[in-house]
Amino acid sequence: MTPNLLILGGTTEATALCKALAEREMRAQVSLAGRVERPVRQPLPMRSGGFGGVEGLARFLKAEAISHVIDATHPFAARMSANAVAACAETGTPLVALTRPAWQRKAGDDWQSVPDIPAAAEALAGPARRILLAVGRMHLADFAPNPQHFYLLRLVDPPKERPPFPDHVALVSRGPFTEEGDRALMRAHRIDLVVSKNSGGQGAYAKIAAARSLGLPVVMIDRPEIPARHEVSEVAAVLDWLDHAGTDLGV
Ligand code: 3Y8
Ligand code: NAP
């Protein structure tokens, strides 16, 4: 069976994988949800928008005769990843996830770990603080019950409606970010607390390293559960998997 790959993208690792596959001239396409106005250009054919749940994805896999699925979505894209596990099981399509290990505390880190986004919002009850809320746009409403704080928001696109905070600054800026840049940002806005997803990878880590160097506390949001699937954390491991996952490539 000649490979015809579907990459579920939207991360730095997905971009690196797409580049490696394009260099090998493998037949592949990369899929995005269509969350942002100007996604990073990819060197592969791109599709954008939901598939329509598990059934929609299963139909897509059959209609496009997809031979393998590589789920390179973000660790918090739990619904997409769960749908990929179900649709690939239903259609018998080999699936591998390209993910990145969770960040681990280092000496000097002052983290308060919370299980999910609502728990992060609950952790913000109390006297007014100056908070870097760099969790994107989709969950800002969860933090509305604590309007006493100043919020420094970081968004990929200009907000379509006013964020639900009386005292905030909204920065339109996409990553990957740098430790120096995030340290300067925190100093300029007198930030005294950072709220972050445990995204893993390099693209979002800058604020964690900057917080440590400034001795600031971090509310760290643990990842959502994702059903069991084969996982690797390197592009090379995906290429090796493709060579041995039931194709006529290299075996
Ligand atoms: C649409 C497509 C690449 C990919 C770059 C990575 C790194 C920069 C850091 C902060 C944290 C945050 C957010 C973030 C980072 C990378 C990676 C990563 C965090 C793009 C992209 C898409 C999205 C969607 C967007 C979410 C938002 C989350 C901003 C592309 C740029 C906060 C996650 O406005 C919205 O609707 C934005 C939604 C999902 C989380 C949220 O809840 O709002 N990512 N981000 C993908 C699609 O349509 O399918 O342009 O490439 C990708 C990247 N964002 O190739 O260089 O790999 O993690 N993305 C988080 O980690 O907390 C910013 O500000 O410090
Ligand atoms: P999610 O909550 O897991 O997915 C919700 C729905 O969005 C999915 O059921 C699917 O719709 C659609 N979808 C998600 N990713 C898709 C993709 N790559 N291609 C096609 N449809 C997709 O996902 P999310 O957290 O909103 O993440 C959306 C995208 O942003 C993903 O590409 C992810 O990699 C990227 N991203 C997310 C974060 C984050 O913090 N969540 C951070 C960085 C990048 P249907 O059910 O209709 O198929």
| Helical fraction | 25-40%
What small molecules accompany the polymer chains?
ligand 3Y8, NADP nicotinamide-adenine-dinucleotide phosphate
The CATH superfamily of the largest domain is known as NAD(P)-binding Rossmann-like Domain
Structural class: alpha/beta
Radius of gyration: 20 Å
- Level-2 CATH architecture of the largest domain: 3-Layer(aba) Sandwich
What's the total number of strands? 12
What name does CATH use for the topology of the largest domain? Rossmann fold
**Strand arrangement in the largest pleated sheet:** 3-2-1-4-5-12
Count of helical regions:
7
Q: Could you give a short account of the major beta sheet?
A: 6 strands, parallel
Strand content: 15-25%
Work out the count of structural domains. 2
Mean of all residue-level pLDDT scores: 95
Silhouette: elongated
Structural features, described:
The protein has 251 residues and is an alpha/beta fold. The protein folds into two domains: 116 residues, Rossmann fold (3-Layer(aba) Sandwich), CATH 3.40.50.720; 111 residues, Rossmann fold (3-Layer(aba) Sandwich). α2 crosses α3 and α5 crosses α6. It starts with a strand and ends in a 7-residue tail after the last helix. The site of ligand 3Y8 has 32 residues, from α1 and β8.
